[in-house]
Design goal:
The complex is a heterodimer of chains A (about 400) and B (about 325). Chain A is an alpha/beta fold and about 400 residues long. Chain A has helices at about 1-5, 10-15, 65-80, 100-110, 120-130, 165-175, 190-205, 230-235, 290-300, 305-325, 330-335; strands at about 35-45, 85-95, 115, 135-140, 155-160, 180-185, 210-215, 245-250, 270, 275-280, 355, 360, 365-370, 370-375. By secondary structure, chain B is mainly beta. In chain B, strand 1 (about 30-35) and strand 2 (about 40-45) form a beta hairpin. The longest helix of chain B has 10 residues, at about 10-20. Classes of the chains: A alpha/beta (about 400), B mainly beta (about 325). The interface between A and B is large, with 38 and 42 residues.
């Protein structure tokens, strides 16, 4: 209690000056002796290697799990009024440890709800290993469209936005701006190819034209500083057909940040760098988001990133379902999460909910440049018979997901 | 907003006069104090001139605002300063700053004007402050992100809403004990009692509804929903609620729907929508309840509504991101 006042020195001094006394110590928060509902949530992720010092945007080693920890605290504050308690079991795996074994261990220990911060192949391995068991997985980082399509699994809920949602958000923005002629630059990785494929589909959906497309062959210039010769080649490289905007497909940050200002013509850049679409951004303060940003900053001592936010959202979705379903049974919760009554406040203006046809969380997405929010998708003007949120990503008539 | 007894101002004749002459000609000029969340200031509107007559600097991120029962002091939550600024209404100077607990967002002032109940948004608590002694009497744990603070007319019951826990918390103001927590729609923003104290109305921004809760049984007796042609359900985001003291009308600010709903307090029927500025949040009557003012956060203005005729009469530009507002008493 007293600690809180000591945190802020100016206020302590003012407090002394005004002769303030704190008279009554607050009653303990936990008012119920033993919780009526206990919910154990597992968190499984790969260890993130420590970054080299020169990496300005290195992935923090507690990315993701820090968001889950915050949501556990939020859930427990709410749960204290309802006799509900939430606990997090973290399994952060070194490279040689099997994700399937770790997931089984969590499930055997009573974690019926498991957050998976894993790439697609490992996520599917875990989902298939736990098939038939009373366990629901929440994927918090994998963006692959096929996980919501041909390779969908009934025991996975997707809290991370799909690539289709991200590229649709960008395409909507470009369509509204009438910047419809796009020069697409595609990196060498499989993820880059997936992003490019997703962007091509979004371009078609929202009436953009890809006037030129080139692979990036100059290596990771955004990471290693480019020499003059390479810079010259890259400069010539961008003399493509006349376009309104360059879209880069570079999920590993190899070259996207190199492209702006190294082009032959003055061109705006978007896609995986420049103007990006994301579930969360450090500049998002609207819709009460300041509270979430502040709570996270205090807990993690750094800014909230998309994967942190997605993990936070997953645990909050579980909390919200437990409050209304009054149950910790994973099957009951999963059933309730696809009920039209279920929704969750996510600090982006409208409530988010899960699509029954592929278990994707439908949510607004942010369009942001590095230090400023540019727009919120869905953009005004796009309409949908169900909810405008379904203008982002794969809609029910197009889905290739068939539950077994 | 908590108003002291305004029966002195309320008279059926006012409404009759308005109907007959169909023009707002307030007998008394009031001042409306508007907090500008991003402007770090308070805009002062003269209700006779219907224009800003003064803009005064206050602490950082001013949000909730209230006025003392004698009308002499203005209380402003300076959220980022973790304090409440007290302004002398006569001079509009900050005369003192009060201990508030961290990140005060909104508060309720009791009828006697000696106790302040503050929602501390960042740490899930309600802080009770003795104003004369500048002494924190109690800190009561509530749900995540407490915001709305409604005090019953007799001052015995406090209702705090928690935006992320989605509850209306009923607190006994004599014992500082939490009596009950009622689940309401998503992101509850405001709690306000009706004149008799029998009901408390709670707006839910993302739930898109207003829960009318029986103040003694704590049961939700009605959920008022809104339907505006041409707008999606997601755009209808109720925040501010004010109730006329004659028990007839309620006004509900609908956020991104850019409208204020007129609701029958008795039947709960939504009668009308008034188009106002962008992202309308909070509402305040003049003490005679002839005029209603709205803060429109994204168009940086205040809309003036003629209460009797239920018509918008003017928009007034104020500072950056107007959040809350209150009228002077004289």
């Amino acid at each position: 209690m007293i600690d809180r006042f000591e945190l802020s020195l100016p206020w302590l001094l003012l407090s002394v000056a005004l002769a303030i006394r704190v008279a009554v110590v607050a009653p303990a928060r936990a008012q119920t002796a033993s919780p009526r509902i206990e919910v154990r949530i597992g968190y499984i992720a790969r260890q993130i290697p420590p970054p080299p010092l020169y990496d300005l945007t290195a992935t923090p080693q507690d990315e993701g799990v820090a968001g889950a920890r915050l949501a556990i605290m939020d859930n427990n504050t709410s749960g204290s009024f309802l006799g509900q308690r939430f606990d997090l079991d973290e399994a952060i795996l070194p490279p040689d440890q099997s994700e399937v074994a770790a997931a089984r261990k969590l499930a055997d220990g009573g974690d019926g709800l498991i957050l998976a911060d894993l790439p697609a192949d490992q996520l599917l391995a875990v989902a298939d290993a736990l098939k038939g068991r009373d366990v629901v997985l929440f994927s918090v980082s994998a963006q692959d469209n096929f996980l919501r399509g041909k390779e969908c699994r009934a025991n996975i809920f997707h809290v991370a936005p799909s690539r289709a949602m991200l590229t649709d958000a960008l395409a909507q923005f470009l369509a509204v701006k009438r910047w419809t002629r796009i020069f697409l630059i595609v990196g060498q990785t499989r993820a880059d190819a997936s992003y490019a494929a997703s962007f091509r589909a979004s371009a078609k959906k929202f009436g953009l034209t890809i006037v030129a497309e080139k692979p990036w062959t100059f290596g990771p210039l955004a990471q290693a500083r480019g020499d003059a010769v390479t810079q010259g080649a890259a400069l010539v490289f961008t003399r493509a057909a006349d376009s309104d905007m360059i879209v880069v497909a570079d999920e590993e940050d190899n070259f996207g940040d190199y492209v702006p200002y190294h082009t032959a013509d003055p061109k705006l850049v978007g896609g995986t760098q420049g103007l990006i679409a994301a579930s969360w951004h450090r500049t998002q303060f609207a819709f009460g988001a300041e509270q979430l940003q502040d709570r996270f900053l205090r807990l993690a001592k750094r800014r909230m990133r998309p994967v942190d936010y997605q993990a936070w959202t997953a645990v909050r979705a579980i909390g919200e379902a437990v409050v209304h379903a009054r149950s910790a049974d994973p099957r009951a919760l999963a059933a309730f999460m696809v009920d039209p009554q279920f929704s969750i406040a996510v600090f982006k203006g409208v409530a988010a909910s899960f699509r029954p046809w592929d278990h994707q969380l439908r949510q607004p997405l942010l369009l942001a440049q590095p230090a400023f929010l540019v727009a919120l998708a869905p953009l005004p003007g796009f309409l949908h018979q169900r909810t405008i949120l379904d203008t982002l990503g794969v809609d029910k008539p197009e889905t290739q997901c068939r539950w077994p | 907003m908590i108003f002291p007894d305004r029966s002195g101002f309320f008279h059926p004749g006012f409404f009759l006069a308005l109907v007959l002459f169909a023009a707002p000609a307030p007998a008394l000029a009031f001042r409306i104090f508007v907090t500008n969340e991003k402007g770090n200031s308070v805009s002062v509107i003269d209700t006779d001139k219907q224009q800003v007559v003064e803009t005064v600097p206050v602490g950082r991120r001013p949000r909730g605002v209230s006025i003392s029962p004698d009308g002499k002091l203005l209380y402003v939550c300076a959220s980022d300063d973790n304090a409440i600024n007290v302004l002398d209404v006569a001079t509009m100077k900050i005369v003192r700053s009060l201990e508030s607990g961290p990140d005060p967002e909104r508060f309720a002032l009791n009828q006697a004007g000696d106790l302040l109940y503050i929602a501390n948004e960042d740490n899930a608590e309600v802080t009770v402050v003795d104003l004369a002694k500048n002494l924190i009497l109690a800190q009561i744990p509530v749900g995540v992100e407490p915001e709305g603070m409604g005090l019953s007319p007799n001052g015995e019951l406090l209702v705090a809403t928690s935006e992320t826990t989605n509850m209306a918390h009923f607190i006994d103001t004599r014992s500082y004990k939490l009596i009950d927590s009622v689940l309401v729609g998503k992101r509850p923003r405001i709690a306000v009692f009706n004149r008799s104290g029998a009901q408390v109305w709670v707006s839910s921004e993302l739930g898109g509804d207003v829960s009318v809760i029986d103040a003694s049984s704590h049961k939700i007796i009605r959920k008022i929903t809104f339907d505006i042609p041409g707008l999606t359900r997601e755009e209808i985001q109720p925040v501010g609620v004010v109730l006329t003291s004659d028990g007839k009308k309620a006004f509900v600010a609908l956020g991104y729907a850019n409208r204020v709903a007129v609701v029958d307090q008795q039947t709960f029927a939504v009668e009308k929508y008034l188009l106002v500025g962008v992202r309308v949040w909070h509402l305040a009557f003049t003490p005679d309840e002839k005029l209603l003012y709205t803060t429109n956060g994204n168009s940086n203005d205040v809309t003036v509504i003629d209460v009797a005729r239920e018509r918008v009469i003017k928009s007034i530009s104020v500072g950056l991101e107007p959040n809350d507002l209150v009228s002077s008493l004289h």
